Amino acid sequence: MLRRSFLILLATPVLAQNLRKSRAKNTDPLATTSYIFSQTMRRVSSEKWNRQPLGDLMGNIGMLLIGTPYVGGTLEGAGPEVCRVDLTGLDCVTLFENVLAMARCSKLGTPTWDAFVAQVTMTRYRDGKLDGYTSRLHYTSEWIENNIAKGVVRDVTQELGGEIFPVRVSFMSEHPQYYPPLKTDSSLVGTMAAIERRLATTTRYIIPRDKIVDVESQLQTGDIVAIATSKAGLDYAHTGLIVRDGERARLLHASLTKKKVILDGPLSDYIASVKTHLGVSILRPITPAVSGR
C-alpha cells in the first residue's frame, strides 16, 4: 500500500463514524451488515480502489473495518448449517474472509450482496459446497489447502524460506462439548475425526518466529497471515492481514485482547509477544479471472 493511501485512510474515518451511528440506531445485524457492505462497495467505487492490485484493494477494505467489535461465534446458530455473514462483529477468521470476499466481488465486477454471500460460501466451505456443518473448513490448514485447490490463494511460505510444519489436529473431535452441532449429534464427531486424520497426512510450511523479521520486507499488503500454535490438537491459533506502512509490514487483525479490529505493529513484534506462536504461513490472494476475458 502506498504511504499516501495509508495516510488518507487513517485521516478520513468517515465510513467508520457512519457505521458506529448505524450500529447504535439499528439492532438488526443483517440490516446493518448489508449497510456496511453497500457503503464499503460505494467507497471502493468512488476511490477507484477496484483498479488496484487485489492485495492493495484488500488492505484498503480491511482498514475501513478498524474499530469493528471482536465477536466470536457469529457463524453458529440454531438449525441447519447456513452461510452466515455478519459484519457488525468480527473474529480473526471472519475479518480476512469477508475482506477477501468483498475484494473478489469488486474485481469480478459484481459488487452485489448475493455475489458477496456466494464468494463467502465458496471460500468457507469444502470445494465451495455447503453441505452441513462438517463441510465448513473449520481448521485453517484445510482452509489453506482447499482454497489453494480452488485457485483463491497461493501459499508463498516455502519460497520465503519456510520450514516444514506437520499438521496435527484433533481438538474438535476431542472436545465436542465446545461445538453445539457436535455436542447434539455424535455422528458428526466421527466425521470430524476422519477429517482430522486426513489432515494429519498433509504438510504445511511456516516461517519460524525468530526468522519473520528477515522476510518482512517481502510481505505484501493483503497477504493473509496464519499463525501456527504449539497448543495441542490445533494447527493455527490466529489469523490476520498484512498492511504495509512504509518499510513495516503491520498486522491488521481482530484482536481478542483489544476486543476490536486493530492495526497492530510489525508482524515480527506481534508474533514474539505470544509464547505459543510458533511462526506464520503466508497466503497470497490470487486475482479472480473475469469470464469472457
Question: Could you describe the 3D structure shown?
Answer:
The protein starts with a helix and ends in an 8-residue tail after the last strand. The protein is built from 12 helices and 8 strands. With 293 residues, the protein is an alpha+beta fold. The model is unreliable at 1-14 (pLDDT under 50). The protein folds into 2 domains: 3-167 and 202-285, Putative xylanase like domain (Putative xylanase fold, Orthogonal Bundle), CATH 1.10.3670.10; 170-200, no CATH class. It has helices at 3-11, 14-25, 29-46, 54-64, 92-108, 113-124, 140-149, 171-174, 180-184, 186-199, 212-215, 267-272; strands at 153-155, 163-166, 203-208, 224-229, 236-245, 248-255, 260-266, 277-285. The longest helix is centred in the N-terminal third of the chain and has 18 residues, at 29-46. 41% of the residues are buried.
Brief descriptors of the model:
alpha+beta; disordered N terminus; Putative xylanase fold; 42% helix; 8 strands; single chain; 293 residues; eight-stranded antiparallel β-sheet; 2 domains
Which CATH-level-2 architecture of the largest domain? Orthogonal Bundle
| Name of the CATH first level of the largest domain | Mainly Alpha
Q: Which homologous superfamily in CATH is the superfamily of the largest domain?
A: Putative xylanase like domain
CATH topology descriptor of the largest domain? Putative xylanase fold
Estimated helix fraction: 40-55%
Secondary structural class: alpha+beta
- SSE ordering: HHHHHHHEEHHHEHEEEEHE
Q: What kind of sheet is the major sheet?
A: 8 strands, antiparallel
Coarse shape: globular
Distance between the termini: 27 Å
Number of helices: 12
Overall pLDDT metric: 92
Total domain modules: 2
